[in-house]
Amino acid sequence: MRLQLTLSVLSLCACGPTSATSGGSVRHFQDEAVSVTTPAAEGSVTYFDELTVAPSWKADVITAATPTMSAADVVSRATEYVEVRHEVSIAFDHARDGDAFDASVTLSAEPDYLSHTLTLGRQWSLLAKRAELGVRLSLSTNSVGRSDVSEFSERLGVMGFGASWSHVMSPTLVLQGSWGLEHRRGYQSNPYRYVPIYGAGPRPVLVLPESVPVFRTGTSVEGVAIWAATASTYVHGAVRLHTDDWGVRSVALRGELWQSLGADAFRVRLRGRVYQQSSANFYAPQYDSPDGWRSGDFRLSRMGTVSLGPKGEFRLRLGSRRLVIWAVGDAVYFWMPEYLVRTSMLASYLGTGISVDFK
Amino acid sequence: MRRLVLVLALLSACTPVRPWERERLAHDCMRSPVDPAQAGAYGHVIAVREGSIGGSLEGGGGCGCN
């Protein structure tokens, strides 16, 4: 078996790839609490025009401060920390005549969090290549720790399933629909987050670790319309609805406008997104009793986001190679009226990268 | 089942697309997302700061955002 595998790998390498890509990028996200810089490198090699192998690496360099509680008697000082997360992944994709199978394995590690994820996908081309049906399965195991308490160890399992349908409606219009289901089981709190308990008075009487349910199941549907307005202008519009058994319901609207210029040597994109959600049914701005679930996570409160930003792409053809240089920037506004620490914040997302295709 | 048949019938009744009419459809801007890797990176940054789950099929991962 080992000999067969070795021979297979050697024969694959000996045949030589038919195409390859490689690229690198760096992105930076900054809000009023966290700064994340993400260098990344990725590549792919395609054999026989059918089998693609794509390894990638990225790191998140996170500089953050634990939030200062608005109740001054509880936690009054923000604590700064720097943390690095590494993620390596390898993906395989086999495509023939529009039908495809893909699989990927991802390992993510940081001092207090270890995650393994496996995804499997299958796509079928249908109706004389006018439609595509896809299904996807994702399994993830996570180990949650605390960098300051070595004995602290919790587990979280995540299982996801999704199905999608893409349909060519006309020479200029494609519609896509997808459905996703995700089930989480295990530790879903933040081990560093504490929640003040107020009792009957105006001041907190004690502070307890965050505590949320062990199970969570959510489902979402998304519809996307892609329209070629002209030979060089493309418009994308999408709506996504989500609900889960913690009571979080959300709607997200997304739009993109792509403009190709100079025989596709330069592309500009403008994108915008609006998102709004309800709070989890156990979330409260402040808790009066130590009984029951409690969370200080603004993501479980009623909140929304608005983001808007451009992107530019230079696409140069150098013989059999194609060079793409891109830069992106987005501004994001968050509002969370039920969150005591802050009720709104601004964030920025910047990125630039380069990739080369070899044929 | 009847609804599924109706939907399939409606979809198959759309404007026929012949091979020589697929030029615009072949453009990579007619995919969503146009660049899956870049869209995934941005989607992750945004998704970990919102309360919804499901759909993205991203597994766990701490990235300091939990």
Secondary structure layout plus pairing:
The complex is a heterodimer of chains A (359) and B (66).
Chain A: H1 2-15, E1 19-30, E2 34-47, E3 51-65, E4 80-96, E5 99-110, E6 113-126, E7 131-146, E8 149-170, E9 173-186, E10 194-197, E11 206-209, E12 215-228, E13 233-244, E14 249-261, E15 266-277, E16 303-318, E17 321-335, E18 344-358
Antiparallel strand pairs in A: 1-2, 1-18, 2-3, 3-4, 4-5, 5-6, 6-7, 7-8, 8-9, 9-12, 10-11, 12-13, 13-14, 14-15, 15-16, 16-17, 17-18
Chain B: H1 2-12, H2 23-26, H3 36-47
Question: Could you describe the 3D structure shown?
Answer:
- The complex is a heterodimer of chains A (359) and B (66).
- Chain A has one helix spanning 2-15, and strands at residues 19-30, 34-47, 51-65, 80-96, 99-110, 113-126, 131-146, 149-170, 173-186, 194-197, 206-209, 215-228, 233-244, 249-261, 266-277, 303-318, 321-335, 344-358.
- The longest helix of chain A is centred in the N-terminal third of the chain and has 14 residues, at 2-15.
- Chain A is globular and about 70 Å long.
- The model of chain A is unreliable at 70-77 (pLDDT under 50).
- In chain A, a hairpin with a 2-residue loop joins strand 8 (149-170) and strand 9.
- Chain A is built from one helix and 18 strands.
- Chain B is mainly α and 66 residues long.
- Chain B has helices at residues 2-12, 23-26, 36-47.
- Chain B is flat, with a radius of gyration of 19 Å.
- The model of chain B has no long low-confidence stretch (mean pLDDT 73).
- Classes of the chains: A mainly beta (359), B mainly alpha (66).
- Judged by helices, strands and strand pairing, the structural class of chain B is mainly alpha
The strands making up the biggest β-sheet of chain A line up spatially as 1-2-3-4-5-6-7-8-9-12-13-14-15-16-17-18
Order of helices and strands of chain A: HEEEEEEEEEEEEEEEEEE
**Roughly how many Å apart are the termini of chain B?**
42 Å
What is the count of DSSP helices of chain A, taking H or I runs of 4+ residues? 1
Question: Would you count the extended β strands of chain A for me?
Answer: 18
What low-confidence regions of chain B span 5 or more consecutive residues with pLDDT below 50?
none
The amount of helix of chain A comes to under 10%
Uncertain stretches of 5 or more adjacent residues of chain A: 70-77
Shape of chain A: globular
The major β-sheet of chain B equals:
none
Taking all residues together, what is the mean pLDDT of chain B?
73
For the largest interface, the chains and their residue counts are: A-B, 96 and 40 residues
